[in-house]
């Protein structure tokens, strides 16, 4: 495990094992005889990270986040339609 973390993240062995211990204590991973598995789904992590970003950087304002994201970007018609559909579903 530490070789992968060294290669991918630049973590030394002690850092890797400290992170495994801390994540295990928070019950985000399970460490069973050196077999490490996630206890949360990737979608849950994405949702948490997105909410944390909006709260921290955009003062909990989704419109401010969207404005910053779209500042220099043009949406395709398909993207705009998908976003409209998401908004309609979220406001029901």
From TrEMBL:
<keyword id="KW-0238">DNA-binding</keyword>
<dbReference type="InterPro" id="IPR036390">
    <property type="entry name" value="WH_DNA-bd_sf"/>
</dbReference>
<dbReference type="GO" id="GO:0045892">
    <property type="term" value="P:negative regulation of DNA-templated transcription"/>
</dbReference>
<keyword id="KW-0804">Transcription</keyword>
<dbReference type="GO" id="GO:0003677">
    <property type="term" value="F:DNA binding"/>
</dbReference>
<keyword id="KW-0805">Transcription regulation</keyword>
<protein>
    <submittedName>
        <fullName>Predicted transcriptional regulator</fullName>
    </submittedName>
</protein>
<dbReference type="Pfam" id="PF03965">
    <property type="entry name" value="Penicillinase_R"/>
</dbReference>
<dbReference type="InterPro" id="IPR005650">
    <property type="entry name" value="BlaI_family"/>
</dbReference>
